[in-house]
């Protein structure tokens, strides 16, 4: 059979993608070329890193900047929830008005669903509030270690609430994380930069992150399994519940006396923080979609390492060898736990079921 001559551009494309002929095996099977997939993954992971790290530094500026001098962490958190709520509703409206423009579920506020989601929303409020309070009182460099007990609480709560046991090797990695946490606290104290209040908020944030992950699975049914609907209801409930807290804690009075309340720069930074808060949920899902949950966890650990180094450089801090060791223990323990759990899940899937491949004595 005669074959049509190949153009130079086609030959180059075949060489780069590994296709064996003009049609290309990748195109025949409907798969994207390797280079294109690699580029997409690199872009998605980079986007996740940039948004996540930028959000932490921006929140630190809003919560504890000497130039702002704003002591209203609950208001900052409330405003970010408000921005997320408006973005969800705006994208839902856009999806209805211009079908095909954006893939977003239809959102209508149902008070019955809001009540069902309310217990999870209380945990969600604790998670985002304690995260911000931890960041307010500790440095960005210590922020990762301060909130490093999430994995430990995952194991503990899975046993207490779900009666799920954990392997010895997974428990060993948890021990490394706990050791890194205590060493980090010790070294922060030795350097005179330890905030007991910030560390306590970090531990509470870790607890709430674990509880949030467990209860999210239980509540998803009420929102038809849609993460975006759950995000919408969580943030609506949070906006309502934050209002009495703003009054009780006197933050409305602090806002009234705030010198930059009418500053466009201040509100721009506040809104940008809300946009980052919304975007991190989207890019997290995107990273899992283009890679895998295991790769996402590894990427998160590497991002935390880069964030710590950037913080030390940006704030011109000097840290001891043991301080860096505590960070490596936390990051190493977290990575090891992710790898162990992934290996155990793969092993479970590959193991044949009992008597698989064997004929039953009663079989004909």
Cα Rg = 24 Å
Total domain units: 1
Secondary structure: helix percent: over 70%
User: Ends: how far apart?
Assistant: 51 Å
Subcellular location: Membrane
Domain Sugar phosphate transporter: 40-334
InterPro entries: Sugar_P_trans_dom (IPR004853), TPT_transporter (IPR050186)
Protein name: Solute carrier family 35 member C1
Would you write up a description of this structure?
The structure is a single chain. This protein is 75% helix and 0% strand. It has 364 residues and is an all-alpha fold. The chain has one domain. α5 packs antiparallel against α9. The N and C termini lie far apart (51 Å).
SSE blueprint and pairings:
Layout: H1 8-17, H2 25-29, H3 34-64, H4 73-97, H5 111-137, H6 140-146, H7 150-162, H8 168-190, H9 196-219, H10 227-248, H11 251-256, H12 264-290, H13 293-314, H14 321-350
Helix pairs in contact: 3-5, 3-12, 3-13, 4-10, 4-12, 5-9, 5-10, 6-13, 7-9, 8-14, 12-13, 13-14
What is shown here, in short?
Keywords: Membrane, Transmembrane, Transmembrane helix. This protein has 364 residues and is mainly alpha-helical. The protein has helices at 8-17, 25-29, 34-64, 73-97, 111-137, 140-146, 150-162, 168-190, 196-219, 227-248, 251-256, 264-290, 293-314, 321-350.
């Amino acid at each position: 059979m005669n074959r049509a001559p190949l153009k130079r551009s086609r030959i180059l494309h075949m060489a780069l993608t590994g296709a064996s002929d003009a049609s290309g095996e990748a195109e025949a099977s409907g798969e994207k070329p390797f280079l294109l997939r690699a580029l997409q993954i690199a872009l998605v992971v980079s986007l996740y890193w940039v948004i996540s790290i930028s959000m932490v530094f921006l929140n630190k500026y809003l919560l504890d900047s000497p130039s702002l001098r704003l002591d209203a962490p609950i208001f900052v958190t409330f405003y970010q929830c408000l921005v997320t709520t408006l973005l969800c509703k705006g994208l839902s409206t856009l999806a209805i008005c211009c079908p095909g423009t954006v893939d977003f579920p239809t959102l209508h506020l149902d008070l019955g669903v809001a009540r069902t989601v309310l217990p999870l929303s209380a945990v969600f409020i604790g998670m985002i509030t304690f995260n911000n309070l931890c960041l307010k009182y500790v440095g960005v460099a210590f922020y990762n270690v301060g909130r490093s007990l999430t994995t430990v609480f995952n194991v503990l709560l899975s046993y207490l609430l779900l009666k799920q046991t954990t392997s010895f090797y997974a428990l060993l990695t948890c021990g490394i994380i706990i050791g890194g946490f205590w060493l980090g606290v010790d070294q922060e104290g030795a350097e005179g930069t330890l905030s007991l209040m910030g560390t306590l908020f970090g531990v509470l944030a870790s607890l709430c992150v674990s509880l949030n992950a467990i209860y999210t699975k239980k509540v998803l049914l009420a929102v038809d399994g849609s993460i975006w609907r759950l995000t919408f209801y969580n943030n609506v409930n949070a906006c309502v519940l934050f209002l009495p807290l703003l009054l009780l804690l006197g933050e409305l009075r602090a806002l009234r006396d705030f010198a930059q309340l009418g500053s466009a720069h201040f509100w721009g930074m506040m809104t940008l923080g809300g946009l980052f808060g919304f975007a991190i949920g989207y890019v997290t899902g995107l990273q899992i979609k283009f890679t895998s949950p295991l790769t996402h966890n590894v990427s998160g650990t590497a991002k935390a390492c880069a964030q710590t180094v950037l913080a030390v450089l940006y704030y011109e801090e000097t840290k001891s060898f043991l301080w860096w060791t505590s960070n490596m223990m936390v990051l190493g323990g977290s990575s090891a736990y992710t790898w162990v759990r992934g290996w155990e899940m793969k092993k479970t899937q590959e193991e044949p079921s009992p008597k698989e491949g064997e004929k039953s004595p009663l079989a004909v």
